[in-house]
Every structure is written in structure tokens, then in C-alpha cells.
């Protein structure tokens, strides 16, 4: 019966997370395409061992003093104590392989923090779309897709990804649409999917990155299924639970 | 210059109103297609003199004791003390002509309350779309379209209307898109505009109304430009400032 299927719900902003319809038995997918969740997938794809997401810069600085590698950005600026910033390219260097990285960003880690009471929290990006959908389908739980947005505002790229994930999940028989947000996200995706980079030209944040010279990573961020990683939260850390990743 | 144009911004939920980019020199358009803003336009089109929006049922009950006509609904249910509910059809009877009506609903009056510190607050519906756009273009202010949603959740019908209004405003040279929400609202509208009632079949609230037998007003709610009314807030009341309305 249709009502026995697991629900798919989309929150277009962290502000809308507390109003979600689903309150039990759910997995949260965190989405911050530009840039945290794309970067986290990139990190694991390149052999990072563990990521410790922290919400505040103070916390990140404390970890740095203890000798951890720290990745951080605020509004596109890398704090002076951090080892590198938030671009997916920063996580592709030999120095990160096998390491634990402490990670704090403008939007992404805030969303992760907010979702941590859910049964499971997983990281979603275009680069791991299909493996993620397959893994979610195997969990037999309701899915809440939480778009990190930009400082709590709706943003186009995260909503666009939410629609892509909705479409991929609906290919499995155990899911159903559950809210208008998911319905609309799917329409957004269908509007732009044939020309992803062209569609994303309309996004404000894409231009924000361009102004700051941070848009070199754009094409990579909108590449579908380049990795098999499934980064999930476990004991306040993010690890990759997919044993089929390329680099280990 | 493009940056000298007035901005158009969309808030998909009251929860997102405080995060809006525009904080000065703006007019708020309240949108609650099913049903408050459609009903308010209907009321003025049918000769209602004034509407007093109140957020709480207690306040509505007090007005009733003083002899006012009271329209109210909570989750589609009309409280026992109210004269009638929230359907646009309730405001088309001879008994309301020339009257002041006290009005409290699930979502719409909450959004009105939230917006009241803006320079101007105006009521938008498909039924007054073009006259509203024309009036907004004449004001030379930034526009924030505030979707009432359903209990703070994103909803399809209000976002669909937001897109229609964005399209109508962009026909005037003094407006520019300002946020991803407005960009996406426009795409939603373009996806569904050729078959409005077909598109809105996907909306959850449309089915909520159907289950309660309250969906008779659906076709009316998605009729374009059937009235010239421009309902605006003035001293905590809503009045119609368009002198070209049909019934006076």
C-alpha cells in the first residue's frame, strides 16, 4: 500500500527543519553542494580517514592546537589558523590521505549539527548521487533531505540536488513523495537536468563564488556519480561506510 | 543600471521572512492562495468595506461579542462562535456588502501579523494578479513576496503564485530578480502555468481541502485577474485602495 512506503521530504533551509512532517524513523541527507558536502565526498574519495565537523571557529582552533589538520571557511575566507579552505580540490592532495580532518564551514556544518539527533545522518552530493540513493533504499527508513542553503536562505543548487535525489529515490519501489517541497524540488531538477551547469548559472551563490575566484570547482561539483563514498555520522565524526570506494 | 532597479524577493515560508535580504524600503505581498488571500480579494470584490485580521481565536471571539461579523477557520474547521469560514464563497453573500469583517485563519493572518512592520502590506491572489503587479510597479519599492505556507511549511500553491507575480513584475522595467527563491518560483510557475489546475493537483493542501469537502473553491482560486481590488493594510485594518473595483 502506498502509505506503507517510506516518505521523502525536503527541507529547503535549516529554518524549516523543525517544521518537518517526519519526526520518527528517519535518515537525514545533508546537502551543501557549494561546498561542504561535495568537499566531504571528495575527501573520502581521496582516502581521508575521518572528518570531525565542528560548528564554531573556536572549536576548530582548539583542534588545530592539538595537531589536527583543519579545513575551514567563513564566507569564502580561510581563517589564518586553518590548513586549507573548503574547496573540494583542497581535499585531493597527498597530505590528507589517511588523515583525520577537522572541518568547519559557513553553512554545511551548521546543518550537520542541527540534524544529529536523527537516526542516521549521511552526506549527499552530485558526485555520490546514485550510490547514495542505493544505500538509502537499502535502509528502509524515511528520508529527510536537508538543504544547508546560504545562511538559512533558500538556495538553488542545494534544492536542485534535492530534486535529483528525489528522482533517484523514486526509482526504488519503497519510496513515495510526501511533501510539496519534494514535489517542487523534482520539478526544479527536471527543469535544469539536461544542462546542469547552464541551469546553475542562475544561482546567486555561484556568482558569489565567482566574485571571490572560488568557482574553479564548479564543474566538479556538478559531476554525477564520480565516487562511491557514503559518508555518515558516527559518534560525532563522519566516516565513509562504503567499502567499495576507489582509494582504499 | 541593473542595481538601481527594485528587487523582487520571495520567502517560501514565514520561517524564512526574518532571513530575507531586503530590510529597508520594501512592500510585502502576502500570499495564501488556499485560502485567506483569495478570500480577502473576493470579499472586497463583493463590496466588503473593511477587514480586521486577528491572529488569535480569542481575539476573534471578543470582536464577535462586540457585534462584528467574524470569519474564521482553524485547520478547515469553523469555530462555533464564527459567522462563517474561510472559503472565498463565504464572502460573496449579500450580508457582507458594506460590512467590516473580523478575520482569523490558520496561516494567512499569521503572515499578515508578521509583516506589519514593512512600509506597506498588500494582499495577493491569482484573482488580482495583474492589477497588483501594476500597482506594485507604480510604488517604486522593493517587493518581498511572503508565502503563508501551511503551518510554516513550504507549499506548492503559494510558491506557484509567487512565480506568477515574479513574471508579471519582470514585465516592468524597474524590477530585477534578487534571490534564488524568486528564480525558482518563476520556474515553478513556468512549469505549471499552461495547465494551472492540473499542476496544482500535485499540491498536498489541495488534497487536504478535498478530504474535508472544502475544495469547491479551487477553480475560483486559480482564476486569473477576475478583480481589480488592491487590499492593503492601513492602521491594522485591510481596505481596498483601488477605486476601480467592480462593486462600489
Key phrases:
9 helices, about 35% helix, homodimer, alpha/beta, three-stranded parallel beta sheet, about 250 residues, five-stranded parallel beta sheet, putative 2-phosphosulfolactate phosphatase
What does this structure look like?
The structure is a homodimer. Chain A has about 250 residues and is an alpha/beta fold. Chain A has a domain at about 5-45 and about 105-235: putative 2-phosphosulfolactate phosphatase (Alpha-Beta Complex), CATH 3.90.1560.10. Chain A has 9 helices and 10 strands. In chain A, strands 6-2-7-1-8 form a 5-stranded parallel beta sheet, sandwiched between helices. In chain A, strands 3-5-4 form a 3-stranded parallel beta sheet. The first copy, chain A, has a two-stranded antiparallel ribbon with strand order 9-10. In chain A, α4 crosses α5. The radius of gyration of chain A is 17 Å and the shape is globular. The interface between A and B is medium-sized, with 26 and 26 residues.
Helix coverage percent of chain A: 25-40%
- Encode the helix/strand succession of chain A as letters: EEHEHEEHEHEHEHHHHEE
First CA to last CA of chain A: what distance?
41 Å
Spatial extent as radius of gyration of chain A: 17 Å
Largest sheet of chain A: 5 strands, parallel
Task: Specify the number of helices of chain A.
Answer: 9
CATH fold title of the domain at 7-47 and 106-237 in chain A:
putative 2-phosphosulfolactate phosphatase
| CATH class wording of the domain at 7-47 and 106-237 in chain A | Alpha Beta
Overall residue-averaged pLDDT value of chain A: 92
- The assigned structural class of chain A equals alpha/beta
- Please report the total strand number of chain A as a whole number: 10
CATH architect. name of the domain at 7-47 and 106-237 in chain A: Alpha-Beta Complex
Based on Cα principal axes, name the global outline of chain A: globular
The CATH homology group name of the domain at 7-47 and 106-237 in chain A: ComB-like
Which chain pair shows the most residues in contact? Answer: A-B, 26 and 26 residues
What is the oligomer described by this structure?
Answer: homodimer
Query: Low-confidence spans of chain A: pLDDT under 50, at least 5 residues?
Result: none
Q: Walk across the major sheet of chain A and give the strand order.
A: 6-2-7-1-8
Amino acid at each position: 500500500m502506498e502509505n506503507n512506503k517510506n516518505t521523502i521530504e525536503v527541507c529547503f533551509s535549516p529554518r524549516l527543519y523543525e517544521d518537518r512532517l517526519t519526526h520518527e524513523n528517519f535518515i537525514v541527507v545533508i546537502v551543501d553542494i557549494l561546498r561542504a558536502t561535495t568537499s566531504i565526498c571528495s575527501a573520502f574519495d581521496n582516502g581521508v580517514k575521518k572528518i570531525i565537523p565542528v560548528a564554531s571557529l573556536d572549536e576548530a582552533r582548539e583542534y588545530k592546537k592539538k595537531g589536527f589538520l583543519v579545513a575551514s571557511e567563513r564566507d569564502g575566507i580561510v581563517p589564518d589558523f586553518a590548513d586549507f579552505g573548503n574547496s573540494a580540490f583542497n581535499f585531493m592532495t597527498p597530505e590528507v590521505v589517511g588523515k583525520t580532518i577537522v572541518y568547519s564551514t559557513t553553512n554545511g556544518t551548521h546543518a550537520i549539527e542541527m540534524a544529529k539527533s536523527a537516526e542516521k545522518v549521511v552526506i549527499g552530493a552530485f558526485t555520490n548521487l546514485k550510490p547514495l540513493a542505493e544505500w538509502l533504499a537499502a535502509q528502509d527508513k524515511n528520508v529527510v533531505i536537508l538543504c544547508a542553503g546560504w545562511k538559512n536562505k533558500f538556495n538553488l543548487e542545494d534544492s536542485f540536488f534535492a530534486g535529483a535525489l528525489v528522482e533517484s529515490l523514486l526509482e526504488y519501489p519503497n519510496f513515495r513523495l510526501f511533501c510539496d517541497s519534494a514535489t517542487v524540488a523534482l520539478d526544479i531538477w527536471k527543469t535544469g537536468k539536461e544542462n546542469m551547469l547552464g541551469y546553475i548559472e542562475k544561482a546567486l551563490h555561484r556568482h558569489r563564488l565567482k566574485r571571490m575566484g572560488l568557482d574553479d570547482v564548479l564543474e566538479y561539483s556538478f559531476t554525477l556519480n564520480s565516487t562511491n563514498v557514503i559518508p555518515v555520522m558516527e559518534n560525532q565524526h563522519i566516516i565513509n561506510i562504503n567499502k567499495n570506494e576507489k582509494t582504499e
